[in-house]
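Below is a filled-in request sheet from our internal design queue. Each sheet records the structural input a requester submitted and the sequence that came back. We keep these sheets so that new team members can see what a complete request looks like end to end.

REQUESTER: design group, bay 2
PRIORITY: normal
MODE: inverse folding
CHAIN LENGTH: 954
BACKBONE (tokenized):
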């Protein structure tokens, strides 16, 4: 046992000496290798907060914080103070005893403790700070309602909002982790000195806010506290270990130097109202009707609101969303934009469009558009950006770690903070959404609404932006609760939201609006009168809460379509009884493309796509068939997607082409085909697929036999006479038998001469027939369809309920005043692959990195050698390896979690700093046969077809 005479209470207290002994950062965490006093770190963090206010925070958020604090400029002072006080809990024996090289000086100043007792009963400093701050604020005259919301800010600066009953010191510590009265005196002086340094002449009583901020603003403040702490904790700041050398002016100087080195900044700042003709300047052509309407509705909105743009494929919804976002930002003080895409969407073109738009507004901001996707290095536009000159790279960064490239082991991979370009601060864990302009899968937003650690950082990256979500109908029943959760927070924070869709159902529209209005009203739930029904024409709906508190309002305005409606012939073609027999589709394509043309075949599963592509090989040349699905490696999929968009674009040559795809061709796949062959799917998805058919109308040359748009619907087998058809089991699992039966009834009814569907005019009626309360199926199906629909609805409700334990807001706490306890029963990161949160978890949970075992060495699919244990030592090799990431077959995913692991050389080790940690699991294939066994299945990788499940392993 360490000799411990210093706990003797007779030691005299020297308060100034004690303040000059308390440690905030050790010498190994400073640029000049000098210990930083605790007061130094508190002032540094406050100085960073001031820079966040001046150069990062959205004008709307500055205004909101000023109102909370009591007037113009008061919000800045409040934010500085809360950020500064965050580490008060380090002024305790529980923290200082851990610093072996410095604790003697602390004791010599008269701050003592019983070492062994205090060491045996640790007390986390963030919880200690929250506990100790409360009586200090009450003594200074702070009302209870303000004490109650401020202490959780201190408690949460390491990522979790804990309940009040968890922050007290351990009872068995006998007061030693807290310290005696001398410690109270020093903590009081520390808080007094901090407050006076930040605002000369002010005391704690002067710091009382005027109003309790909303929960959304509290979440933002917490995110800013974490952000300021992380920046001020960087090893690039010099330490100051002499109290006499310490001042807030010097802290500002240090912080400004670091800020400049990191290259951080916000977005637009004060964005001017777009001038007349701005749309043409941004996008190179006059606005189409829905684009002009979206801009006008956003421009005249009396408050931040939820704007829903509904228009058929090809109307220009993405640009309508961006122009509405610009109007919202100018009117309501947003500083940037988040553009969310469906997880399986082709995200590259949208990234290019957003970057073009931002550049047109302010050319200096173009490099600050982040592609926040783990596969972004496979995107040509992104790759060109990151290899551009340094000044073009400064803030073009996102967070690969959020998509599974890291696991908390640390990232000492040679590209660390000391050697990276400054803006690569945004590459750090949890930071990607803090970039001012972000294009990402919508999963990034959904994950910001889960009850996980450091969620306040992700949320803070969203609350000052305009949020634009494309193809919002693609968020399924498992993701919808997280989307609704986000809309409640956005409504409360006054975040303008723009939703884009071609096939939104009335139920989806209503629930989205009610979630936003509930947040805007500070309520957990809200019921609003039914919104106006869609008419099939492009329309814009706006919902908002009146600024005068008189309640919610909504408007729905329709406009003419830019493109003419087209009559699409519908041809149902049942499959033969022999499972997997693709001959009839091959014959159909060979006949209909005899004179050339482009066909898109959409299959509901990868296995069906692979089988058809293999069958086409015997009738079509190799360059006439392209297969595109999830079980191709990421690099091959990216290359083939670009090839498909090129060959199916407006600048096409002669010849014929068949693209065999899965759901990857449903959303954000800007292609035009002459013929569509598709598996039967629910009507909204079928309409999405039809959106690729004759997209340019008569503007493109087409073979005479394909001059009229036609969709061939297959993927089903006929039932007994007069009875319902049969569907593959995989389709029923994915979509539900109820919607499939209802859609089949519509398909059969549309077959025949002079029938078909008029797109987009018939779309609202079609979606209502499938998702509404009607029962429009043949009499012989009625009983089957009713039972299947009831089961589908029951399962949807069950999945939605399963999401509740994972939502950021626990049920019943949405109207509480503070965030205390928000992380009670929080979700551990490793559990995000369970239950409904699989949707918002990293894609790597259902993926693996393909590696070949060639004798006694590992190589990539391209033949590049890895280290003996799979080590990756260069950025180029790391990117090549990530390009070999592939989605696992559905038959193997459940068992893959326990069967697959990283290679030994993919883990970070402090003694091997040359390594590049690899976050994915390895799927090791035999180097010659390219096969492996997984979960009792034989898998083989084929360069043309991707990862194949060849059946049970023998």
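RETURNED SEQUENCE:
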């Amino acid at each position: 046992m360490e000799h411990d005479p210093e706990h003797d209470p007779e030691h005299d207290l020297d308060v100034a000496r004690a303040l000059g002994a308390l440690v905030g950062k050790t010498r190994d965490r400073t640029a000049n290798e000098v210990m930083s006093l605790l007061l130094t770190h508190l002032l540094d963090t406050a100085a960073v907060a001031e820079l966040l206010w001046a150069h990062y925070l959205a004008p709307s958020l500055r205004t909101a914080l000023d109102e909370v604090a009591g007037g113009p400029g008061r919000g800045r002072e409040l934010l500085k103070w809360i950020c500064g006080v965050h580490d008060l809990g380090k002024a305790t024996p529980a923290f200082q005893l851990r610093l072996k090289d410095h604790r003697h000086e602390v004791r010599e100043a008269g701050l003592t403790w019983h070492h062994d007792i205090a060491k045996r009963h640790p007390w986390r400093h963030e919880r200690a700070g929250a506990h100790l701050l409360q009586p200090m604020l009450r003594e200074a005259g702070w009302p209870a309602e303000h004490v109650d919301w401020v202490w959780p800010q201190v408690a949460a600066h390491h990522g979790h909002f804990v309940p009040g009953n968890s922050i007290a010191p351990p009872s068995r510590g006998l007061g030693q982790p807290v310290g005696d009265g001398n410690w109270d005196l020093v903590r009081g002086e520390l808080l007094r000195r901090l407050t006076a340094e930040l605002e000369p002449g002010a005391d704690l009583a002067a710091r009382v806010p005027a109003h309790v901020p909303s929960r959304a603003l509290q979440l933002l403040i917490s995110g800013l506290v974490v952000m300021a702490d992380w920046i001020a904790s960087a090893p690039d700041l010099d330490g100051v270990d002499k109290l006499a050398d310490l001042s807030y002016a010097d802290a500002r100087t240090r912080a400004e130097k670091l800020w400049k080195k990191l290259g951080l900044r916000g977005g637009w700042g004060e964005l001017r109202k777009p001038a007349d003709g701005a749309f043409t300047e941004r996008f190179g052509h006059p606005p189409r009707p829905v684009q002009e309407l979206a801009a006008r509705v956003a421009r005249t909105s009396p408050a931040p609101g939820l704007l829903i743009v509904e228009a058929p494929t090809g109307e220009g919804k993405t640009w309508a969303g961006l122009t509405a976002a610009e109007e919202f930002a100018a009117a309501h003080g947003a500083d940037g934009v988040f553009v969310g895409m469906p997880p399986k969407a082709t995200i590259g073109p949208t990234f290019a469009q957003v970057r073009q738009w931002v550049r047109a507004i302010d050319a200096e901001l173009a490099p600050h558009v982040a592609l926040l996707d783990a596969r972004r290095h496979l995107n040509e536009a992104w790759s060109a950006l990151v290899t551009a000159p340094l000044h073009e790279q400064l803030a073009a960064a996102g967070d690969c770690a959020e998509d599974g490239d890291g696991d908390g082991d640390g990232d000492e991979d040679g590209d660390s903070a000391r050697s990276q370009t400054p803006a690569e601060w945004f590459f750090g864990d949890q930071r990607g959404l803090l970039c001012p302009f972000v294009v990402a899968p919508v999963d990034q937003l959904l994950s910001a609404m889960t009850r996980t650690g450091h969620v306040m950082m992700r949320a803070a990256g969203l609350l000052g932006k305009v949020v634009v979500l494309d193809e919002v109908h693609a968020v399924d029943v498992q993701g919808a609760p997280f989307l609704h959760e986000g809309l409640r927070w956005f409504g409360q924070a006054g975040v303008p939201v723009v939703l884009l869709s071609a096939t939104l159902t009335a139920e989806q529209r209503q629930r989205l609006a009610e979630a936003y209005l509930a947040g805007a009203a500070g309520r957990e739930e809200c019921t609003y009168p039914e919104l106006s029904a869609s008419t099939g024409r492009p329309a814009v709906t706006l919902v908002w809460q009146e600024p005068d508190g008189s309640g919610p309002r909504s408007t729905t305005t329709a406009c003419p379509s830019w493109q003419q409606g087209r009559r699409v012939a519908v041809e149902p073609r049942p499959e033969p009884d022999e499972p997997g027999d693709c001959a009839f589709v091959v014959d159909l394509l060979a006949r209909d493309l005899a004179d050339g043309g482009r066909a898109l075949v959409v299959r509901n599963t990868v296995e069906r796509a692979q089988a058809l592509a293999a069958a086409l090989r015997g009738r079509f040349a190799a360059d006439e068939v392209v297969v595109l699905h999830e079980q191709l490696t990421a690099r091959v999929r990216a290359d083939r997607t670009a090839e498909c968009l090129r060959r199916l674009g407006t600048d096409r040559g002669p010849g014929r082409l068949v693209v065999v795809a899965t759901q990857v061709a449903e959303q954000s796949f800007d292609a035009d085909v002459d013929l569509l062959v598709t598996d039967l799917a629910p009507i909204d998805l079928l309409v999405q697929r039809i959106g690729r058919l004759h997209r340019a109308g008569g503007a493109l040359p087409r073979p005479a036999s394909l001059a009229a748009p036609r969709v061939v619907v297959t993927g089903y087998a006929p039932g007994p006479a007069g009875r319902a058809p049969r569907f593959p089991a995989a389709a029923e699992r994915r979509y539900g038998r109820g919607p499939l039966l209802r859609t089949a009834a519509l398909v059969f009814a549309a077959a025949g001469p002079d029938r078909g569907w008029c797109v987009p005019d018939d779309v609202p009626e079609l979606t209502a027939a499938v998702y509404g309360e009607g029962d429009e199926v043949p009499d012989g199906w009625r009983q089957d369809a009713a039972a299947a629909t009831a089961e589908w609805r029951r399962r949807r409700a069950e999945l939605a309920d399963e999401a509740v334990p994972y939502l950021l807001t626990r049920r019943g706490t949405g109207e509480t005043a503070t965030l205390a306890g928000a992380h009670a029963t929080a979700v551990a990161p490793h559990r995000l692959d369970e239950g409904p949160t699989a949707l918002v978890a990293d894609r790597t949970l259902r993926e693996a990195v393909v590696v070949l075992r060639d004798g006694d060495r590992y190589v990539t699919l391209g033949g590049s050698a890895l280290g003996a244990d799979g080590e990756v030592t260069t950025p180029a090799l790391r990117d090549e390896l990530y390009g070999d990431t592939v989605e696992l077959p559905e038959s193997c995913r459940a068992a893959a979690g326990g069967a697959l692991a990283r290679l030994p050389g993919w883990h970070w080790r402090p003694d091997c700093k040359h390594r590049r940690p690899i976050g994915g699991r390895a799927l090791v294939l035999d180097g010659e046969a390219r096969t492996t066994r997984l979960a009792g299945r034989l898998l083989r990788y084929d360069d043309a077809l991707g990862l194949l499940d060849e059946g049970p392993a023998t």
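SHEET NOTES:
- The CA atoms of residues 785 and 939 lie 37 Å apart.
- Residues 782-803 form the longest helix (22 residues).
FILED BY: M.R.
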